[in-house]
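wait is this the right file?? whatever heres the structure
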């Protein structure tokens, strides 16, 4: 099978991420990674904290910490939360790593040698109050395109248009708030994207038709507007230094690479971190995933729509210009926004539900299932507390959790702690088997196509099929007249429960493990279940236990409390 390389957009270091960040990149990447591993693929899921750039320096300054110390602490805090969400990274690295610095500088040297980096004198904003040149994100003002009054000097968070600091209306320093700014001359490195336009267009033409419309349309929109040469250095203390062997003057002045230049390279850097972190006796070949790997590796990226231009245009231009056979993405899975009552989740404005708070309220599986069931794929989707409670109560508590509990509890009450035997399977079981085969194929097809919302619907349909079968057979009534018939029904239902524990694992790994562990099978190492064996994998006589309540219903009191605490609207 093809080796599967998976990356999700790097979460930025300044603060805990909200649920919109989670559903727009890391969580669907995890669901897909888990599914591929279950189907027997060799998977490498790589992510990292994005640690360079202006916001890191500003956040460290606000925390009263050296930026390196701040980033180290923030990395550990974020990793702990992602562990809480059961994200199955093969490695979660740091863009400030020596490995990323080394690879970024080497790619920059290659781009320069190939004529795609040029040193230019530019006029840049200087703050008299702060006594320094201001990088783009140190300048805030009003977006000239949409009028948003908190736009940054590199990009408007509201309309996603890429900006230069001099584009802003009424600009001011993000450090001091001073508007005592002037434009002075300084030198920076530029990536000559204009010279790479034809190559990027050719690459997107060859690959973009298979991407979701959201990803391909954004990439082509950028190409239609024309690729501009872009400054790839900044005046910061924290970042990948410009290599002094090529640009001694710029290195001496403290120039570092622009965060959007080195951050995508960190996918490669983090893979080298993974290789370098191999335990004694284990050899990990990071280059085989990234170098001369076009025919041996399928590479899938997950990101929200604001990250698409950088990953489908700027980073490919960088890789193409290096003239090295680095692996380029095969499939870009882009997401729209998850909103909070129709308004944008926002880290800077602290609007919405943040991942650390989410885990304080409920275990990860509640959030994982809801977010993927409402994934903003074809359009934006909105988080409301009423919708969240409805999905959790109906799908997780009633459809899955109640099915597992009533089957196992009733069977233990009437037949003891082993799976009962009962009659041979009959017509109802044959119909159920055909239904399960159809639903399982549908579920697999949606996951293969990375249609997560539809996959969640198919998973729920699998759970519902068990409830319908149980209601039709009514073993609580059968037991009054024909214990063997009741035993058949319960044995069949227990096989469904085991099937659910396997195929639900990508979405709800903790609950899936609890369900699976309730059966004491001599060999339960299977990773996936074929439809034709789905109702026969748990034989009569298998010991079982009744797991604790898998999903507690969200009560009206909880709903009222959370709505009051977090607000019922934007």
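ok assuming it is, sequence goes like this
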């Amino acid at each position: 099978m093809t080796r599967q390389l998976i990356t999700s957009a790097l979460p930025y270091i300044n603060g805990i991420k909200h649920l919109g960040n989670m559903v727009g990149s890391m969580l669907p990447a995890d669901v897909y990674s888990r599914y591929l591993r279950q189907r027997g693929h060799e998977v490498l899921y790589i992510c990292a904290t994005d640690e360079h750039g202006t916001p890191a320096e500003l956040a460290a300054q606000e925390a009263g910490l050296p930026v390196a110390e701040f980033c180290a602490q923030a990395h550990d805090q974020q990793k702990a939360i992602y562990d809480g969400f059961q994200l199955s990274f093969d490695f979660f690295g740091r863009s400030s790593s020596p490995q990323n610095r080394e690879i970024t500088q080497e790619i920059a040297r290659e781009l320069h040698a190939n004529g795609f980096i040029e040193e230019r004198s530019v006029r840049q904003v200087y703050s008299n109050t702060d006594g320094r040149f201001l990088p783009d994100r140190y300048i805030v003002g009003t977006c000239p395109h949409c009028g948003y009054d908190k736009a940054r000097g590199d990009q408007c968070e509201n309309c996603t248009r890429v900006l230069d600091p001099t584009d802003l209306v009424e600009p001011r320093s993000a450090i001091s708030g001073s508007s005592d700014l002037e434009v002075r001359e300084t030198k920076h490195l530029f990536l000559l994207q204009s010279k790479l336009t034809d190559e990027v267009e050719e690459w997107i033409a060859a690959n973009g038709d298979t991407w979701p419309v959201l990803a391909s349309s954004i990439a082509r929109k950028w190409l239609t507007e024309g690729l501009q040469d872009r400054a790839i250095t900044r005046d910061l203390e924290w970042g990948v230094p410009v290599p002094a062997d090529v640009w001694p003057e710029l290195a001496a002045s403290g120039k570092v690479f622009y965060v959007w230049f080195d951050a995508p390279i960190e996918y490669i850097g983090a893979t080298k971190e993974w290789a370098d972190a191999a335990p004694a006796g284990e050899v990990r070949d990071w280059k085989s995933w990234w170098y001369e790997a076009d025919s041996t590796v399928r590479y899938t990226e997950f990101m929200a729509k604001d990250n698409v231009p950088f990953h489908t245009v700027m980073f490919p231009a960088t890789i193409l210009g290096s003239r090295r056979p680095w692996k380029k993405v095969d499939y870009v899975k882009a997401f729209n926004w998850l909103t909070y009552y129709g308004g944008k989740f926002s880290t800077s404005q602290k609007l919405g539900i943040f991942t650390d708070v989410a885990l304080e309220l409920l275990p990860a599986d509640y959030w994982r299932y809801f977010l993927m069931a409402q994934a903003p794929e074809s359009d934006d989707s909105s988080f409301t507390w009423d919708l969240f409670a409805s999905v959790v109560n109906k799908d997780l508590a009633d459809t899955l959790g109640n099915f597992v509990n009533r089957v196992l509890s009733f069977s233990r009450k009437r037949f003891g702690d082993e799976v009962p035997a009962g009659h041979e399977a009959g017509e109802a079981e044959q119909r159920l088997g055909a239904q399960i085969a159809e639903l399982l194929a549908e579920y697999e097809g949606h996951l293969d196509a990375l249609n997560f919302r539809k996959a969640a619907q198919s998973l729920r349909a699998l759970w519902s099929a068990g409830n319908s079968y149980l209601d039709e057979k009514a073993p609580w009534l059968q037991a009054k007249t024909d214990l063997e018939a009741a035993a058949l029904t319960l044995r069949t239902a227990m096989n469904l429960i085991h099937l659910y524990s396997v195929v639900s694992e990508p979405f709800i790994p903790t609950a899936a493990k609890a369900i699976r562990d309730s059966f004491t099978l001599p060999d339960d190492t299977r990773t996936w279940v074929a439809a034709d064996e789905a109702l026969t994998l748990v034989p009569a006589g298998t010991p079982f236990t009744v797991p604790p309540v898998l999903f507690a219903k969200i009560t009206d009191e909880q709903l009222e409390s959370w709505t009051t605490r977090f607000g019922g609207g934007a």
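Residues 6 and 45 are 5 Å apart (CA to CA). so i think its the right one actually
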